[in-house]
């Protein structure tokens, strides 16, 4: 019988339990996320259906969430995010300075005639969150908005988040940009690059996206250079170090 490796210590029951998290907190956050994703205020029944929780459990959670200001019950008994959610969002912006640094760079890309710039961060193992979005001056646009949850494993921005999010030095070999031609949406094309923070941490992916028929070879070539220049400027402004320049493929 093989013996346990000396380099793999056995976890104590208490430590293992702590790593599982707290079920009540998980359920409460699931409720908040369901309200955040909804396109309109939700009833208790709607929240229960979205989370898979019993209405009685949702109601108990709501008492605390309302008291702390994370959700708000309207007069029609439907629920929306409360003022604490807004304050948390503003605190995130203050601590990360992401919008402050990226918004002018993204607007400058629009003025240069590129496709629509978006900034994406990893949400979980399956999704990414569009944190910022500016529409291009073109008459037709792709359907991406700030706050949208998109698949992590499809699309140019997702490729960047997966490739550079591990911190593996091998990820920096070759070109820094990633491309997508109809992967997430068969009618959409995109090109994306990484934005790094202090210590080489990947902060997110800056992408340019739009209708696929405008992503010709010549158009993509024109967009890659200003996109990566914006990624480099954002990286330096946010305290990161930009990798050595790579040739676009």
Short description:
This protein is of the alpha+beta class and 249 residues long. It is 41% helix and 18% strand.
Description of the molecule:
The chain is elongated and about 55 Å long. 41% of the residues lie in helices and 18% in strands. It folds into two domains: 74 residues, Winged helix-like DNA-binding domain superfamily/Winged helix DNA-binding domain (Arc Repressor Mutant, subunit A, Orthogonal Bundle), CATH 1.10.10; 141 residues, 2-Layer Sandwich (Beta-Lactamase). The protein has 249 residues and is of the alpha+beta class. Strand 7 and strand 8 form a beta hairpin. The strands form two sheets. A six-stranded antiparallel sheet has the order 5-4-3-8-7-6, with helices on both faces. It has a two-stranded antiparallel ribbon with strand order 1-2. The protein has eight helices and eight strands. This is Helix-turn-helix domain-containing protein. Pfam families: HTH_IclR.
SSE order and pairing:
Blueprint: H1 13-19, H2 23-37, H3 44-51, H4 55-67, E1 71-73, E2 79-81, H5 83-96, H6 98-111, E3 116-122, E4 127-133, E5 149-151, H7 156-164, E6 178-181, E7 188-196, E8 202-211, H8 217-237
Antiparallel strand pairs: 1-2, 3-4, 3-8, 4-5, 6-7, 7-8
Helix pairs in contact: 2-3, 2-4, 6-8
End-to-end distance: 52 Å
Mean pLDDT: 86
Helix fraction, binned, reads 40-55%
Count of alpha and pi helical runs: 8
CATH topology of the largest domain: Beta-Lactamase
| CATH architectural grouping of the largest domain | 2-Layer Sandwich
Give me the strand/helix succession: HHHHEEHHEEEHEEEH
Keywords: DNA-binding, Transcription, Transcription regulation
Domain IclR-ED: 84-240
Domain HTH iclR-type: 22-83
Protein name: Helix-turn-helix domain-containing protein
């Amino acid at each position: 019988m093989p013996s346990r490796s000396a380099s793999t210590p056995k976890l104590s029951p208490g430590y293992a339990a702590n790593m599982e998290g707290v079920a009540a907190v998980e359920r409460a956050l699931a409720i908040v996320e369901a309200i955040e994703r909804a396109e309109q205020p939700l009833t208790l029944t709607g929240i229960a259906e979205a989370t898979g929780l019993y209405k009685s459990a949702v109601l108990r959670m709501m008492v605390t969430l309302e008291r702390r200001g994370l959700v708000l019950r309207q007069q029609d008994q439907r629920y929306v995010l409360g003022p604490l959610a807004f304050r948390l969002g503003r605190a995130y912006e203050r601590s990360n300075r992401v919008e402050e640094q990226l918004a002018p760079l993204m607007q400058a890309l629009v003025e240069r005639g590129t496709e629509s710039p978006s900034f994406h961060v990893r949400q979980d193992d399956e999704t990414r969150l569009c944190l910022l979005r500016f529409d291009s001056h073109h008459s037709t646009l792709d359907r991406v908005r700030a706050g949208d949850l998109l698949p992590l494993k499809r699309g140019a921005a997702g490729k960047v988040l997966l490739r550079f999010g591990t911190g593996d030095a091998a990820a920096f070999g070759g070109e820094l940009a990633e491309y997508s031609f109809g992967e997430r949406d068969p009618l959409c094309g995109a090109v994306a690059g990484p934005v790094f923070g202090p210590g080489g941490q990947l902060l997110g992916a800056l992408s340019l996206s739009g209708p696929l028929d405008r992503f010709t070879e010549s158009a993509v070539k024109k967009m890659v250079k200003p996109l990566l220049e914006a990624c480099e400027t954002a990286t330096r402004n946010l305290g990161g170090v930009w990798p050595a320049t790579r040739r676009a493929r």
